[in-house]
TrEMBL record:
GO molecular function: glycosyltransferase activity
Source organism of this protein record: viral metagenome
Domain Glycosyl transferase family: residue ranges: 183-317
Protein name: Putative glycosyltransferase
Record keywords: Transferase
Pfam families: Glycos_transf_1
InterPro entries in the record: Glyco_trans_1
Length: 346
């Protein structure tokens, strides 16, 4: 099958959305399908190498784009080009919604895209329930999956030297540094770290991100023991995550938030924003796989509870790994489901 992921006008950068598209494209290619990622600007993705032949540079004249069997819009800015693509009827056009993109488009226009007639795929239960069911729009869930083998093979030598399951005097926390969108709520990370430090319970904050830390946040982090890794490759990211006791997820308006899942496979316990839109509730179940919060104060309380109870930490960690492996699944498993969805068999 010839399949195109439409990224024209949004393109590839160092973010979870681009990572998901590239990993899925590679997995589909290994299944024997001809895959293109349509772009109109050079790729800025550097997290890991991928076959350059996946990329197809196209121009503004949609009628001149190559012919495919299926074409998939990947964000709100790609919907109408996908609709106008003249070589396919609507039944072979899809929209993989991977976040509620209110930061990029107003709600009315977002809804128009959702109601455009494209076959809707969503990457999380909350998007299905909270958006599409509410507006009576049919949708199917397709998770991006996780690079399970890559994480496990990179993790093995790192984890052998770690003994994380005693009572913790000082906690090591990991978090994503991203401040271009207020929805990431990075300032909450600093508030929580400061509160733990005042209680004498804070050890270190590990951060990774795609841009150097802004001077404003450098000042706020000046009294916090922290380590920042800029644009880590996968092995560097796994190494960072595996040094953490807790992964702190503060975001809202995610689809399916990826760093907490990667951290969970690296053995971190998860303390996550409890709003449905946090993008973690497909795998973060309160007091089963994670602890949830609705305020920084509750986040601190939950971290302290984890520090004092190694049995719960171990139980939740094992439960989280089981959920990630069995519910979210690998990229490869989800690629097979993707083909079934594209063929209309689910």
């Amino acid at each position: 099958m010839d399949i195109a992921f439409n990224l024209v006008k949004c393109n590839l950068g160092n973010n979870g959305g681009s990572q998901s598209i590239i990993r899925m494209a590679c997995a589909l290619r290994k299944l024997g399908h001809n895959i293109n990622i349509l772009i109109d600007r050079p790729s800025r993705f550097t997290w890991f190498p991928f076959p350059n032949e996946l990329l197809k540079q196209v121009g503004k004249y949609i009628s001149k784009w190559p012919r495919y069997d299926k074409i998939i819009a990947t964000g709100c800015s790609t919907v109408w080009d996908t609709i106008e693509y003249p070589h396919l009827w609507l039944g072979n056009k899809f929209y993989w919604v991977r976040g509620y993109e209110s930061w990029a488009m107003n709600e009315h226009d977002l809804l128009m895209g959702y109601r455009s007639g494209l076959n809707i795929l969503v990457n999380s239960e909350w998007l299905q329930r909270g958006v599409f069911d509410m507006y009576d729009i049919d949708s199917r869930i397709l998770y991006p999956g996780l690079p399970v083998k890559e994480i496990e093979s990179s993790l093995s030598p790192i984890r052998k030297s770690l003994d994380k399951w005693g009572v913790l005097d000082k906690v090591i926390i990991g978090a994503l540094y991203y401040v271009d969108k207020e929805t990431k709520r990075f300032s909450d990370v600093i508030v929580i770290a400061n509160k733990l430090q005042k209680l004498g319970k804070f050890g270190k904050l590990f951060l990774f991100g795609d841009k150097p830390i802004d001077i404003k946040y450098l000042n706020e982090l000046s009294n916090i023991n922290h380590e920042f890794v800029l644009r880590p490759n996968m092995i560097e990211k796994i190494s960072l995550m595996s040094q953490c006791d807790i992964w702190l997820s503060t975001s809202i308006n995610e689809g399916l938030h990826i760093p907490p899942m990667e951290a969970g496979l690296c053995g971190c316990n998860l303390v996550a924003n409890g709003l449905a839109s946090s993008g973690t509730l497909d795998y973060a179940e309160e007091e089963v796989t994670a602890k949830l919060f609705i305020s920084c104060e509750i986040a601190v309380e939950n971290i302290l509870k984890y520090m004092d109870n190694p049995d719960i930490r171990l139980e939740h960690s094992n439960n989280l790994k089981g959920c990630l492996l069995n519910k979210i699944g690998s990229v490869e498993d989800n690629a097979k489901k993707f083909i079934t969805l594209l063929e209309g068999e689910l």
